[in-house]
Amino acid sequence: VIGEAQRGDLFLAEYARSDSGWRRMGDHRIVPAEAWLASLGPTDIVTGPGVTKVASSLITTRSMVAAATAQPSVRLLASLARRMALAGDADDFWPLAPIDLRPGVAEERSD
């Protein structure tokens, strides 16, 4: 799953499918877009809001989810949340915080 990180980079989180569903493999991270594209294997599937940035590089060589469906719908998120809640797998939403992988440009310049 990729997101646009600006400066030629992508936000990346890798997932693997198991019998119990999807699970994240490792931490979220920032990767250079070109190097990441070169590392993709033929069975990798790419989705997320960053798909539009790399779509032209993926069309002929990789599987990608259509850009129009790369972001989950509210209906899908509600369905997943309901399934998790019924299974007793609920998160405490009070400690949730954004994932901050790097400082903003203004923060970098102030240092």
Describe the model.
It contains 4 helices and 5 strands. Helix content is 31%, strand content 28%. It has 111 residues and is an alpha+beta fold.
Taking pLDDT < 50 over at least 5 consecutive residues as the criterion, the unreliable ranges are none
N-to-C CA distance: 31 Å
Outline: globular
Rg calculated over all Cα atoms: 16 Å
Percentage beta strand: 25-35%
SSE string = EEEHEHEHH
Brief digest:
It contains 4 helices and 5 strands, in the order E-E-E-H-E-H-E-H-H. The chain has helices at residues 33-39, 51-58, 74-86, 105-110, and strands at 2-6, 9-18, 21-32, 45-46, 63-64. The chain is globular and about 45 Å long.
Question: Key features?
Answer:
111 residues; globular; 28% strand; alpha+beta; 3-stranded antiparallel β-sheet; two-stranded parallel ribbon
Topology record:
Blueprint: E1 2-6, E2 9-18, E3 21-32, H1 33-39, E4 45-46, H2 51-58, E5 63-64, H3 74-86, H4 105-110
